[in-house]
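Notebook entry, structure prediction.
Reason for the run: the old model in the group folder had no record of what sequence produced it. Starting over properly, with the input documented here first.
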Amino acid sequence: GDVLSLRMAKYKGNINLPEYKAVMLASLRSLCKDWGSQHEVSWSWLWENVERMLKALMGKPAVQEKALAALYASLDEAALMVIRKEVYQKFFALAPAGQDYFKQSTTRLYFIADKLVAMTLDMYKEPK
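New structure, fully documented this time:
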């Protein structure tokens, strides 16, 4: 839902989510030979939840993009160093096996963290 909301924020026009649901269900019915009422209920439930999340995010990505750009622009080298270190501490705490794949030098890890920060802002600018 987050990436979809970023893409929708860049769209210049009216977004009709209920209409999308109708088209999505029609497409799924034609693709699934054994489509039944359980499929209909399940996909309807899924889309209603996605639609609810998208509606809650509407209008927010532009504000978030501006705030994120301002934050990144305001960071000095010491603050960037804290972010670089925190990225890996958090990542390795959540996924300890990641340490097996990140055996590069600290300099290389910091370079990757910088790219991650830049990619985050790029996702707001040009979501794909």
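Summary: Residues 37-57 form the longest helix (21 residues).
The old model has been moved to the deprecated folder.
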